[in-house]
Amino acid sequence: MAGLSVVIPTLEEASRLPLLLADLRRWPGELEVIVSDGGSRDQTREVALLAGATVLDSPKAGRGPQLRWGTDHSTHAWVLVLHADSRLPGAWHQKVGTVLNTPEAHLSAWYFDFNVDAERRPMLWLLERMVNLRSRWLQRPYGDQGLLIQRHLYERVGGYRPLALMEDLDLVERLSKVAPLRSLNCALITSGERWQKRSVLVQAWRNARLRWLWRQGRSTEQLLRIYRR
Hints:
The chain is an alpha/beta fold. The chain contains 10 helices and 8 strands. It has a 5-stranded mixed beta sheet with strand order 3-2-1-4-7. It has a 3-stranded mixed beta sheet with strand order 5-8-6. The longest helix is centred in the middle third of the chain and has 17 residues. It is globular.
């Protein structure tokens, strides 16, 4: 089995990180786990080190800078980017392993389907399906869906830019111009915290508004202030 580098940006993720790190142990080949930290004051570093991960202190906090820092310091030909509040499905290692053993797989970037860890409601069900259709038709998966990419393709498009927000959309828009983005046909489970804090419609509207403002040229710093409200 080919080696795999996993990059996880963190900030105060001590309570959620252990579950994801446990999921990663299913990988049957050589595994490099890089936790790119943005200045956590909780036990994030200790949790990661105890699980055998490499912890890097990003020179600049923010998901974009941390992802770039972590990916730049990874060593394997294939990189899997995950958010710390995600849970991998039971068969993730089989799906990813199949991709890594497919000769033409390096010509594409890969993502998981979208699934929210929250109480099942009709609007949430609809949201998940709309996001997954959007990912397939428009080639615009969210960062919450992870990203599996071969290093040469990642470097070809310039990698993650050090953006405070929208780093995922920025990268996939550049990727979609040179390579297809394809589903791994299994769902990554993302935290439902945001979707439980507000109604599904309100949170979806906030996300759409942020994307629209970004395309209108608003700075990511301005968007981050709106995002944190």
